[in-house]
Amino acid sequence: MKLLVSDPLSEEGLKILTASGIPVDVRPGLSEDELCGIIGEYDGLIIRSGTTVTKKVMDAGKKLRVIGRAGVGVDNVDVPYATQKGILVMNTPSANIISAAEHSLAMIMSLARMIPWAHESVHKGEWKRNKFTGIELYGKTLGIIGVGRVGGEIAKRAKSFNMTMLGYDPYLPADVAESLCVKLTTLEDVLRNSDVMTIHTPLLPETKDMISMPQFRMMRKNALLVNVARGGIVNENDLYEALKEKVIAGAAFDVFVDEPLKSDSKLFELDNLVMTPHLGASTVEAQEKVSVDIAENVIMYLRDNVIANAINAPRGQMDQAVAPYLPLAERLGIFIHQLNGQRPVDKIEVVCSGEIAGKNVKMVTLSAIIGVMKNIIGDTVNMVNVESIAKGKNIKITESKNEDSPVYSNMVTVTVTSGSDVLSVRGTVFAQTPRLIGVNNYCLEVPMDTNLLFVKYRDRPGMIGNVGNILGENGINIGHMAVGRERTRETAIMLMGTDNEVPPAIVKKISDTMGSDETKFIRLVE
Known about the structure:
Elements: E1 3-5, H1 11-19, E2 24-26, H2 32-38, E3 44-47, H3 55-60, E4 66-69, H4 79-85, E5 88-90, H5 97-112, H6 115-123, E6 141-145, H7 149-158, E7 164-168, H8 174-179, E8 182-184, H9 187-193, E9 196-199, H10 213-218, E10 224-227, H11 236-244, E11 250-253, E12 273-275, H12 284-304, H13 325-340, E13 347-354, H14 362-377, H15 386-392, E14 396-402, E15 410-418, E16 421-430, E17 433-439, E18 442-447, E19 452-458, H16 463-473, E20 478-485, E21 491-498, H17 504-514, E22 519-522
Parallel strand pairs: 1-2, 1-3, 3-4, 4-5, 6-7, 6-9, 7-8, 9-10, 10-11, 11-12, 13-14
Antiparallel strand pairs: 13-15, 15-16, 16-17, 17-18, 19-21, 19-22, 20-21
Helix pairs in contact: 1-12, 5-7, 13-14, 16-17
């Protein structure tokens, strides 16, 4: 058994690896071809952001069992292919929480007291105190967009500034927000009534360009905006215009759509924007912690077969009859969450019926919860942390089995409760493909291998043709479709697998044409 470390790791992390007794080679700076030439000798690979683990690398890694990423992001690892190859991918999702929170506060203080510009002025030999009159945070309103782990840590620290705190987080329980002294409200309310705003949401289809010019125009003229979360949540072209036109007073960004920033970026023109080169996790403590955490987790897996912070499903540890139901369960979770919208989830119930009910289906349940949670938390949610994350949001999880499955040999049912609303979906696997077989009282059968257009409508002639015509007029091809009706035949649902994404404007047109307030484009696959 051997381990390869292909990026710099802290001394503390290397000490843990060396003490494990597993031979370790440290070879930073390898090209892809060089890595492919040696990876076949190793059972484990530990990386940071410098190494890209491609299909070519994994195909060469004949013995490779685990890839450990010392950090949060796994953009440099082909995770789906790793899963297909049976290679476990780990990361360290919680190691940089404090560092990210503190950097956010540092950015806020830099803006409030104009520190970067004052620093530059002094270095020019100037002493223009009147030019750099800042503001106090005392008594100001802080808007936290995404009151999760990092946002929560910021709230704890902002109390000492005696700030009023507004929060936008549709998935955070009210009692958790109350314990942080954060008043939960709408995004628009946060934007309109905050003096300072800080962003802490994952980058998802729903959060991409979440802050654009319409949102900037809601903000106060003296507003300050900070982003130490992800590039792409704020539209950078609109950020430039908002700062250039003084729609808002200033901003501080640590993350950008394209990193590193190109030298010709127009953001460099701005005199009211603080920029740092993605330093949210760049502290001695965070760097050491990610190194220590990944070293311990990789050793535990290779030596003791114990899994921690797994990004993908650990297929090798389960009955092969159960393995195909993991992707099914996750896609059912993704589907039901998007159908449920932004309503807070109170309960997730997973029922396994048929032959698999006689087996250990814990990972099926976890996969379903991951599907529900990943559009709330992002890709950092995994088999290990999903239950604790759900618990932290006061979401009740139940798992049950039923050996009777009269129609299908195996079936997975996922039910989500949001207040008084209950939504249920059912699925099975055949021909190696996850298939949706029911939504609430509607029965149908549709593959879950593409994105889906969902329409609930009053059942009458011409409805299917209306949708087909609108999609055809807009160049969107339908790969497959299915229709399900209630026994009363008053209402029906339609699901269409499309080759292209259906833009919001087209979804609205279909909704208006069909007289349906339940028309949604469901993203199941990237």
